[in-house]
Amino acid sequence: MGLFIGTVAAYSSGDFLVAGVLFIADLIHTVFVTYLLLVGKYRDGHGKIISYPGQKIN
Q1: Per the domain annotation, does 48 fall within a domain?
Q2: So what's the pLDDT on residue 46?
Q3: Could you tell me which residues come within 8 angstroms of residue 37 by beta carbon, excluding any fewer than 6 positions away?
Q4: How far apart are CA 28 and CA 32, in angstroms?
Q5: What is the DSSP code string of 16-41?
Q6: Averaged pLDDT, groups of 10, the chain, 58 residues long
Q7: Beta partners for 43?
Q8: pLDDT on residue 13
Q9: In angstroms, rounded to a whole number, what is the distance separating the alpha carbons of residues 28 and 51?
Q10: What is the rounded distance in angstroms from the CA atom of residue 46 to the CA atom of residue 58?
Q11: N or C, where is the chain less crowded by C-beta within 10 Å?
């Protein structure tokens, strides 16, 4: 969420280069976390696996 807010703030202030870099970083982070969620490897701060409803974890 912080990267998105930074992107919007940089874009609003007219700093398009910084906004672009923040957008790309946010996009990479989102794709990576989504992948971890889909394969059942994402863990919370306590080490517990986070899954979507109905996901079967072995």
Answers
A1: no
A2: 96
A3: 50, 51, 52
A4: 6
A5: HHHHHHHHHHHHHHHHHHHHHHHHT-
A6: 92 96 95 92 92 82
A7: 49
A8: 96
A9: 20
A10: 19
A11: C
